[in-house]
Amino acid sequence: MTKHQKRLSVPKSWPVERKEETFTVKADAGPHGESGVPLLIILRDVLGYADSRKEARYALNEGNVEINGKEISDEERPVGMFDIVAFDEREEYYRVFPDEGGRLSLTPIDEESAQSKLGKIAKKANVPGGDIQLTLHDGHTLLVEEGSDYDVKDSIVIANEDDKIVAHFEYGEGALVTAVDGSHAGQIGQIDEIQVTPGSSQNNVLVEQEDAPVSATGGFETVEEYIVVIDENFVSESDEEGDDE
User: pTM of the prediction?
Assistant: First the structure.
């Protein structure tokens, strides 16, 4: 199987220039499915911490890079939405987040925030023994007690060290959300209305921004699949990133 991926056919979320060269690195199987970006692209093309695959491998073999609290030695390991990328020696910590063009970008965060990550609940199922298995957007699974009030489309924050759930954000009107795909990717607001569509079509979500109605320039409408419930930390991080620019 080839280790290369044509740049013109990479997912739109990948932060690579498609016309500079013909090929780029191919991601290994792992979290995030086809949308996962190889760690090498983050190290080389986004941050500029390595000029080649060889340099990236050296840094990884030194144990200098962690994803979600775990040391990573594979430069092709997929990185995706809401992952935490940490460089402890540099004291640099980033959350992977879609920008307004839909590409995955790195948002600087502090060390405390890097100890846990956000996940959207994609599936919920009963398992033998009476527990409930939650499957997150990146394929990560964890068990919770039967009767727990976690539902599909809710978001949870889990500690990197032990998978303990440290926060829970319910999906519904009034929730703080971000769009992670589509023309409004990266935008943040509060759910104003969830429009239930009969049949198999996607529900629509109307989102208000900065107290502006959806019909004005401050709001937007998107399909439910693209919406993720977040917490207020994402708003402050977005403001700080804007100030840096």
Answer: 0.82
- CATH architecture of the domain formed by 176-244: Roll (2.30)
Q: Look up the CATH number of domain 115-168.
A: 2.40.50.740
Query: Is the Cβ–Cβ distance between 188 and 230 less than 8 Å?
Result: yes
Distance CA 173, CA 194 (A): 7
Both structure tokens of 96: 């992977």
**What is the CA 143 to chain-centroid distance, rounded?**
21
pLDDT of residue 133: 96
Q: How many CB atoms lie within 10 A of CB 77?
A: 23
pLDDT for residue 245 is more than 50: no
Q: Which of 76, 78, 74, 110 lies closest to 95, judged by CA? A: 110
CATH of 4-111, one of 3.40.50.880, 3.40.50.300, 3.10.290.10, 3.40.50.970: 3.10.290.10
**Phi and psi torsions of 241, nearest 5°:** -65, -40
